[in-house]
Amino acid sequence: MPGQAVKVPAAHQVLAVLGYLARQATPVPAAAITRDLRLPRSTTYQLLTTLAESGFVVHLADERRYSLGVAAYELGTGYVRQAPLQRIARVPLGRLVDRTGHTAHLAVLHGREVIYVIEERAPGRPPLVTDVGVRLPAHLTASGRAMLAALTRAHVRALYPEPDAFVTRHEVGPRSLSALRRILVETRRRGHAIEDGEVTPGLVSVAVAVLDSAGYPVASVTLTFPDYAPAEEQTVLVAEVNRTARAVAHRIGGQLHSATE
After folding, report:
1. Which of 57, 75, 93 delimits the end of a domain?
2. 244 and 135, same structural domain?
3. Which of these, 7, 58, 89, 93, is most buried using a 10 Å CB contact count?
4. CA distances for 189 relative to 40, 136, 186, 212, 244, angstroms
5. Cβ within 8 Å of residue 203, ≥6 positions away
6. How many domains does one find in the chain?
């Protein structure tokens, strides 16, 4: 009927497989896809064969595993060129700055780093190191911690396999996987991430992850303010960051929080 969405099961299954592969730290066997997506084994192989023929998936025969292909990469680069997330988030971030009087950012996760894609600087506030295009270690930033907390333990472990992955800026911050995990557990408990002077002394940042419909952190909303802000004001600022992250998540059809462990 006109005006009603028509669901195509095969299309949903294809998208589920592509989304699943995109969330994995390494290529995966077909059995894992079958198990985690609860698909019939025959359906999984049919989908993978079709996706491989069109270049969206690569079959690594020697490893008996599957990964995303060049066509999927082309989709990703098209997304970057069109920058829909930045367009969607700019107005909510601007409103966040207007309501709080502090500088706000939108960041995305890229490996062990965060990349800042939007900076909405509050009038009269000094410039920060987190300008657009800047990359910083994810484990040191509120932005990164908010997104890392939404990943699985296995994904975080794959990102930080060795102690030398834990760089610091001012000799503060987690220096081991166990220390990072404690921070991420506390971040999930609170519902927001905090960074206090680990990037820039004297400044505090709070961040909330923006999750897609599958629970993957596509971005985080961050607000930065002086460390002398009263506790009551900080509580209000956290609520405003949550409100903004919720607005961005709503615009992309995603969700706000994840209970990932």
Report:
1. 75
2. yes
3. 89
4. 36, 24, 5, 20, 19
5. 128, 197, 224, 225, 226, 227
6. 2
Quote the CA–CA distance of 173 and 145 in Å, as a whole number.
11
Q: What is the mean pLDDT of residues 34-44?
A: 93
Whether 168 and 242 map to the same domain: the answer is yes
Q: Return the residue matching tokens 């999750």.
A: 211
| Burial class of residue 42 (count of CB atoms within 10 Å of its CB; 0-12, 13-18, 19+) | exposed
Whether the Cβ atoms of residue 144 and residue 134 lie closer than 8 Å to each other:
no
User: Phi then psi for 190, rounded to 5 degrees?
Assistant: -75, -35
Q: Domain holding 234: CATH number?
A: 3.30.450.40
Model pTM?
0.70
Q: Can you give the residue range of the structural domain that contains 130?
A: 83-252
In this predicted model, what pLDDT tens digit does every residue of 62-95 receive, in sequence order?
Answer: 999 999 988 887 777 666 555 678 888 999 999 9
| pLDDT tens string 161-211 | 888 888 777 677 788 899 999 999 999 999 999 999 888 889 999 999 999
Q: What is the pLDDT of residue 256?
A: 59
Strands in 156-247 per DSSP E: 193-196, 203-211, 217-226
